[in-house]
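Weekly modeling sync, notes
Attendees: S.R. (lead), two postdocs, one rotation student

Agenda item 3: backlog of single-chain predictions. S.R. asked that every request posted to the team notebook include the full sequence so nobody has to chase files. The rotation student volunteered to paste the first one in as an example of the format we agreed on. Action items at the bottom.

Example entry:
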Amino acid sequence: MIPREVIGVAEVPGGPPLRLVRHGGDFIIMLDRNELMSSRMSGSEVALGTMTLQRLAAPSPRLLVGGYGMGFTLRAVLAKVDADARVTVAELVPGVVDWARGPMQAIADGCLDDPRVELRIEDVGAVIAAGQGAYDAILLDVDNGPDGLTRTGNDALYNQRGLDRARAALRPGGILAIWSAGADAAFTRRLKLAGFAVDEVKVRARENGKGPTHTIWFARV
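Predicted structure, as returned to the notebook:
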């Protein structure tokens, strides 16, 4: 049996630390005993990027991705958009970026150094609040979804006020795309009450169509 090895610890403002674990050739980001993400199950994170762009008519879009995680959503977006697109990445935890530039450098594949990318070590909620009409799409893979796990401060992204801010930060026809580990009927209703047209999609965790089922909401202005 291949043992798990903790190779990094990252402090989370307002929450417990994250641990980076190596298991053979795979990496896992953990919170206590919970696996938040794994390099072997990236299908739904990739789908967050590709399925958002499939629904988006804007050429050379302006996108906001929060947070970075293992970068699967960011790389999926960069593979589809043209040279004039601009992607802002908001990541709250500096240690996550250190991991991307360190032990997970091969997985990151230089995506944070892409000239189309602006990296901001900042709470994505603050970036949204400051971006009136700035984005064609906002892609959120923060915490475990609307039912926060990492830090209570993330709940502000998904309450009515947070959704109103996201709507204000989007351009006409823009999309708020939200990844979640599971379904949440109350959150679907909240999106609709905030004035979004909502498409809720079930996606498998693995790109081969296997693994746990995750949920992505595509909420259009």
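Discussion: group reviewed the output briefly. The domain at 41-220 is CATH 3.40.50.150 (Rossmann fold).
Action items: rotation student to repeat for the remaining queue; S.R. to check formatting next week.
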